[in-house]
Specification:
Blueprint: E1 2-6, E2 14-17, H1 31-42, E3 47-52, E4 55-61, H2 68-88, E5 93-98, H3 105-116, H4 127-130, E6 136-140, H5 146-167, H6 175-189, E7 192-196, H7 198-204, H8 207-213, E8 221-227, E9 238-242, E10 244-248, H9 269-284, E11 290-299, E12 311-313, E13 319-321, H10 329-339, E14 347-352, H11 356-362, E15 367-371, H12 375-387, E16 392-394, H13 399-403, E17 412-413, H14 421-430, E18 437-441, E19 447-448, E20 458-459, H15 464-472
Parallel strand pairs: 1-6, 2-4, 2-5, 5-6, 9-11, 9-14, 10-11, 13-17, 14-18, 15-16
Antiparallel strand pairs: 3-4, 7-8, 8-11, 12-13, 15-18, 19-20
Helix pairs in contact: 2-3, 3-5, 5-9, 6-9, 8-10, 9-15, 10-14, 12-15
Length: about 475
């Protein structure tokens, strides 16, 4: 989707108003059309469309909610509705004019329309017939700045890249292919990419990643990304870690297929979040030194698959008793978190579809997070979550949860029992950190089974806007 500034507003387009009095100021409408728009809004609808001789005119009513972030989200959702109308009417472009007191109203409307327009048609033979007609969203020059429009375009493109990665079938997106795609994103956006192959991973003694990979005939990868501008404002790097399990059968602790294994191509959504964030950060030229790590493999029950009862020596040297091979994400993340220590990071944030417990707790409405980072960092993440409507629910990390993962035969075990599953998974990861750290469990939000507003069916890219917003405001 192309988003750009239009130097001169067209006669046919979208006008955003924040009260019905503004309708009378729209010279493009006749008296009858103004009455029609007023009646539409009186019926609690937010979009009125009018078929005019030289095109379609849309009037959007901004309805203020209890909070600014709720108002912003309502505009994104209205943008999705607008995009649907434009496609039904076979329009190729729309132009948004903001007549409200809300400075970013046009941007929010464009954001919702652009995100809702995403399609994954790569494997559909009738793709040409199914492709949306809406290809461009124009914003009148007095309704947004060029910088804001450019940043929105970059963010939308990054989310599209992430959604594409998640939607790729597992017979296409292997661990090696994921690394190749990240390398291509690095070349396009301008960040450095280093890929460690299986031999190097084995030489480094990344026991967690190698153990999960034992059941697969396909090799693992460990991908390192780096954005290091000349005048970075952070003296120590921020490190992002993304879980890259490109397909998860559960291993020998086999998952059921319905409503579980059938969606496990999305188990690399954490990797998609961090590489998309790096893509956006590099193109926006943010003055931050950022490193991102993606340990990647599939988790299968073949070959010499690791088994419940195994004791694995991790990259850190710690030993882990494996009680469930389906708790594999924490095994590969642990090695990446230990790797991050070499950078002496200012902050580490990991993103992972880690636990069903997180999904059961908050569903599709937010991200479960926890960690030991400074309260100012947590507050900044929380505020970014509200601004982007990718909200965070913070869980406690009390010592008692750590007791649940103590093992009698190893240092720790990889599951902590039937209760507090999202937190015990976090405590497992914490064992491999010695720096300020935040963990984001995106299990409930990374993949959607049906379209909802501007969230499409399939990979959602949820968390990218929150993370990019956090990095954009970092240090301010």
């Amino acid at each position: 989707m192309e988003i750009k500034i239009l130097q001169k507003a067209t006669a046919s387009g979208v006008w955003v108003v924040d009260n019905t009095d503004k309708i009378n100021e729209l010279d493009i409408l006749t008296a009858d059309e103004r009455k029609y728009v007023t009646d539409v809004f009186a019926a609690e609808k937010s979009v009125a469309s009018i078929n005019k001789y030289n095109g379609f005119a849309f009037v959007v009513l901004l309805r203020n909610k209890k909070t600014d972030w709720q108002t912003a989200e309502s505009l994104r959702k209205t943008g999705a509705e607008l995009a649907s109308l434009a496609n039904q009417l076979k329009l190729t472009e729309i132009c948004i004019n903001n007549l409200t007191q809300t400075a970013n109203a046009a941007l929010l409307l464009a954001e919702g329309a652009a995100l809702a327009s995403y399609q994954f048609l790569k494997y559909r033979t009738e793709a040409k017939k199914l492709t949306n007609t809406l290809q461009r969203i124009l914003i009148a020059k007095n309704s947004a700045t060029l910088r804001d429009v450019n940043q929105l375009q970059i963010t939308v493109n990054a989310i599209e890249r992430a959604r594409n990665l998640v939607n790729e079938p597992p017979n296409v997106l292997t661990a090696e292919k994921l690394a190749e795609e990240i390398d291509a994103m690095g070349k396009e956006a301008g960040f450095k990419v280093t890929i460690l192959n299986k031999a190097r991973i084995a030489k480094e003694k990344m026991g967690g990643l190698m153990a999960v990979n034992m059941g697969s005939p396909l090799p693992p990868t460990f991908t390192i990304m780096e954005h290091k501008p000349a005048r970075a404002i952070n003296k120590k790097p921020i490190v992002l870690v993304g879980k890259g399990i490109v397909y998860d059968t559960g291993g020998l602790s086999l998952k059921p297929t319905p409503n579980s294994m059938d969606r496990m191509k999305s188990d690399m959504s954490g990797a998609a979040v961090v590489c998309a964030a790096m893509y956006a950060v590099a193109l926006m030229k943010l003055p931050l030194h950022i490193i991102a790590l993606v340990p990647a493999t599939d988790n299968r029950p073949g070959e010499n698959a690791y088994t419940p009862g195994d004791v694995i020596t991790m990259y850190s040297g710690a030993t882990v008793e494996v009680l469930n091979t389906d708790a594999e994400g924490r095994m590969v993340l642990a090695d990446a978190l230990h790797w991050a220590k070499r950078y002496k990071p200012e902050l580490v944030a990991d993103f992972a579809t880690l636990t069903g417990a997180a999904s059961m707790a908050v569903g599709e409405h937010g991200i479960v997070c926890m960690g030991n980072a400074d309260e100012n960092v947590v507050k900044a993440f929380r505020e970014s979550g509200y601004r982007q409507y990718e909200r965070l629910v913070e869980y406690p990390m009390w010592d008692e949860y750590g007791e649940q993962i103590k093992s009698e035969v190893a240092d720790i075990k990889n599951v902590g029992g039937p209760t507090g599953g999202a937190i015990t998974a976090g405590k497992f990861l914490e064992h491999f950190t010695d720096y300020p750290w935040m963990h984001f469990d995106i299990a409930g939000v990374s993949f959607a089974t049906g379209r909802k507003g501007y969230i499409p069916s399939g990979g959602t890219g949820y968390g990218i806007r929150m993370l990019v917003d956090f990095l954009t405001h970092y240090g301010k």
